[in-house]
Every structure is written in structure tokens, then in C-alpha cells.
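Reviewer 2 asked us to include a model.

Predict the structure of this chain.
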Amino acid sequence: MPPRGPAATIKPSSLLGAAGPRGGTETILLVEDQLPVRLVTRRVLESYGYRVHEAASAREAMKIWRQYAGEVALLLTDMVMPGSVTGWELSEQLRAQKPALKVVFMSGYSADVVGGNAEFMRQYQSCFLQKPCATAEMVQTVRNCLDGKVGAGRHAAT
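Predicted model (C-alpha cells):
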């Protein structure tokens, strides 16, 4: 049985083998209200070389954004969050300030159920990631979005 808990280290090679998706060094703003999902997502992304700032809500994300907006290359956000601001609305607010910001939307619901706007996603080179997902899918979706490959794979805007 593999080690569990905080002492366990996630290594890309142990999860995906030598042919797994490549990571990067970009900074990601992760917005996810479920603590276990947020912590695992952060650990995985950091194990692939990304720098991650995390927030549990849109309100927290805005505070982090004010400090790190110049560094953040990608917003990885849950679409349905507690409070009055959704992932869509948060992305629109941040993209109004930084049009080049890439966005990956995540949800346990399908994009159709949560109101995924395919035109918005195409126009702003955003991707959708259905939760739960495999580590390789998440890392590849993030990489594709950062690289502007939004037409690649089943999680990209169509």
C-alpha cells in the first residue's frame, strides 16, 4: 500500500510513467471550495512544477489576485462555489483586468448543466474539466489551455 497523508510525495513519474503529460513553471490561481479537492489539486500541480496560489472562494481569489495578478497565467476554478460569485463571473472579472488570462473551469456537473457557454470558452481559449478526473487528464488539460490548445481533447471547448 502506498504511503498516505502529508508525508507522501506525489511524483509525476509514479503517477503516469515516463510518457505522462508535461508540466510547466507558470503560476496558477486555484479556486476550489472543497478543501480535500483543493489540497490534492495543488499538490499534483506543484509536483509538475507549477506555482499555485489557492483560494476557497471567489472573494479569497480576488484578494490573492490583487497581490499576484502579474504572475498568474491560468485560473483553475470550480464553476459552482458558495457565495454570490460563480467561477464564470470570477473569470470574467479577472479577464477584464488581464485579457490574456487562461481559464480552466472544473465542475462535478457537466458543462451543459452548469451553463457552460461554448462561445465564451472558444473566444477566451478556456477549457472545461469534469470532476472527478484522472491526474493525467487534469495536468494535460492545464497544459493544453496554457499552450492555447483548447481544441484538443474532450475537455476543451468545442
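The chain has a mean pLDDT of 79. The two ends are 40 Å apart (CA to CA). We have added this to the supplementary material.
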